[in-house]
Amino acid sequence: MANVTKRTVDYYTNLGLLKAERSPSNYRYYDYSSVERIQFIEDCKAKGMSLDKIKEKIIEKYAEEVDVLELRLKIKDLEKEMTEVLDHLEKNDEEKYKEFKSKLSQDSLSLVKTLLSFIN
Question: Which domain of life is it from (predicted)?
Answer without folding.
Answer: Bacteria
